[in-house]
Amino acid sequence: MSSDATPHVTIVEVSPRDGLQNEKGVVPTDVKVALVDRLSAAGLPVIEVTSFVSPKAIPQLADAEAVMAGITRRPGTRYTVLVPNARGLDRALPTRPDGIVVFGAASETFSQKNINCSIAESIERFRPVVARAKAAGLHVRGTISCALGCPYEGDVAPSAVANVASELLALGVDELSVADTIGVGTPAQTSKVFEAVLGLVGAERLNAHFHDTYHRALLNLEACLALGVRSIDASAAGLGGCPFAPGATGNVASEDVLAMLSTLGYGTGVDATAVRAAGQFIRDELARFA
Ligand code: COA
Ligand code: ZN
To answer: How many CB atoms lie within 10 A of CB 12?
Structure first.
């Protein structure tokens, strides 16, 4: 078999955003910039850099503008940022992201706790944001948080995930990310939820975002791979969690995902040794600052 036949998986590195938003201490801006630059130098094709959210909600990422100004753009890496509302897009656009992420939820209570509005209100809030971002030529991801379970409501029905997915698709998002925000999914439930969403959109527009409890995230990701999903979120050193999702475990570690994909025969174009070094770098820094 020629190397052209090696199936490719896109790794989306989320440690600078999902990882650092959940640290107790505030990591200095220059450390965040150094982390992003190390990750891009490792060949990661997409990096979620930061969030243009309310600094009252997430004080850890209040320096979003400074981080975006400080990073060195590597051609070949897409730098994306979270945007919760029009105000967030106003702040984000001058910093020249390549893509934005709007984030809704599959559970009403989590939507209220995380972004202070109902699911239906969030879709209306995203509508002009997505339209403006698309008009500006940006890639747009729509994330569905708590798709495999909610810290407040418990089980989440696959049909609830599919409903939000179809609303986000109708807004014109390029990609959907189905997120196990608190790391409670099992492979069987993962398959059910992803199958429900795959009834609405092709696997090439679907991303899997898992937090890792008992190393189940890798099994869940294998279930996603079996369904044709080829975009996976991961976080160096397994950092991550959400301040509005009590009990959330860290994201699945990029180091673990890269090792698994290599074992299964998938290519990523990412230098796993450099990612391990970036993970060690941020671990050491967090020991100093967090
Ligand atoms: N950037 C900076 N400040 C913002 C902002 C943004 N994108 N959106 C709102 N604000 C400020 C407003 O200016 C206002 O400030 P003030 O109190 O000094 O006047 C305050 O936040 C409240 O604004 P409001 O529009 O009423 O928002 P809200 O209180 O309903 O909060 C969100 C809604 C979405 C802005 C907020 O819940 C949030 O930022 N959530 C993010 C959660 C998150 O990132 N979770 C982790 C990722 S899953
Ligand atoms: Zn997450």
So the answer is: 24
CA dihedral over 134, 204, 73, 257, signed as positive or negative: positive
Is residue 109 a contact partner of residue 153, using CB atoms and an 8 Å limit? yes
State if residue 88 touches ligand 1 by the CB under 6 angstroms criterion. yes
Domain ranges of the chain: 10-289
- Tell me the CA–centroid distance for residue 243 and ligand 2, in Å: 10
Task: List, for residues 215-255, the tens digit of each pLDDT value.
Answer: 999 999 999 999 999 999 999 999 998 889 998 999 999 99
CATH domain 10-289 topology: TIM Barrel (3.20.20)
Q: List the residue whose alpha carbon is closest to atom 44 of ligand 1.
A: 53
Pairwise CA distance, residues 93 & 85, whole Å: 12
State both tokens at 80.
């994306």
Q: Token pair for residue 286? A: 């967090």
Read off the pTM.
Answer: 0.97
